[in-house]
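Please, structure for the following, as tokens.
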Amino acid sequence: MVRMLFVPSVEQGTLVRRGDELARFVRQDSGLTIRSEVPTSYAAVIQALGAEQADVAWMPAFAYVIAHARYGAEVKLQVVRSVYRFGTLVTRSSGRQPESIQDLAGRAVAFPTGLSDELRQKVLTVLDAEAPGWREVPTASSLEAVRKLVESPTEVDAAVSSWVFSGPYDLVGDGRKQLEAERPGTLADTRIIFKTETPAAERATAYYGCVYTRVDSGISRLGDLNGKRYAFSDETSTSGHIFPRLLLDRHGVSLGRVYYAGGHPNVVQAVWDGKADAGSAYYVPPGEREERNGTFVGDARTILLSRMKPEDRLGFLDEVRIIALTDPIPNDVCVAREGFPEETWQTFAASLQRFLVTDEGRMALFDLVAGIAATPTEDSAFDGFRQALEASGMSAAGLLEAEEEKLERRRRRQEEGE
């Protein structure tokens, strides 16, 4: 029998129900007997792997780092989220500049090498058809492509940038806004003359923390946060505290009053209400779900947006914006205990992938770990995450201890309410 555990990260009833659906499919599909359980703590999941009382577990990256160091647990799969990314063509906004794709015939275009194959092909198809003789000037990223357009006007006449939906005053989402965050005033120096009709559906294995402010706060750069009131989500949150704190420290920011709002949507609410000058919560670029639900963005604002009338949503995005992102944070993972038979793992993994192409499987995975897929990965992919934790002064073990204390407080409140 294969014993599969989930950490208690969301409502337990959902984890139990969806975990049982996965176990039932694997059993019927492969003949493996699967038992799905949700222990009461992160530590219990890690200890079960070490004691061979669990074979497979789904957990956040920090819990895996501990399970690997203590018990030799092996990371097998990483959760993947969907991102809808468009391609744009950007030109300078002043002087006699190209106004259409046709005007780029025979001209130099800064082109990011990091675009996905699908998105790159969408842009190439249009340029090749509409602007014969255009020349590609490779750059490292969308930000660098737009930077080259602004800072080296004699070298390129346009820039390609990826684009995801963001609030109108956000400083994330495309190369133009990223450059504006670094060099205020440059957004007005460029304009978009073309955007692909359809997005490329990309897969992301990381998410971020972000910094929120009110648009009317006068805060537009991280340096403006010195002495300001700041809301973090909670002390143990990777995206709502640890990585944002690293970002602020790196920029030499000395905050004023700091408090923990007790959740990601609470941070956004505090900033919106003016109870905090700024705050941090999670950021994920929007994908199919946000488009379907009409919430536009994929970060913590989407929780508040989902509670609003559709006609009020864009107005809210006019008031609360993102001015910076943290370094990437690895998505959740699926791990196997040390010594788990490889043949059994391969049988389980193959059946899992067959489950995930069904409608039931897609919904189950999203409810379990907020993902659309689970792809193979390896331990070295988490080296940067380990280094970031060390730099923050919060070890993975310390993070686990704090998370367990939070779970215990939650249990006590539930018991007192019964």
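The first strand starts at residue 2 and ends at 6. The mean pLDDT is 92.
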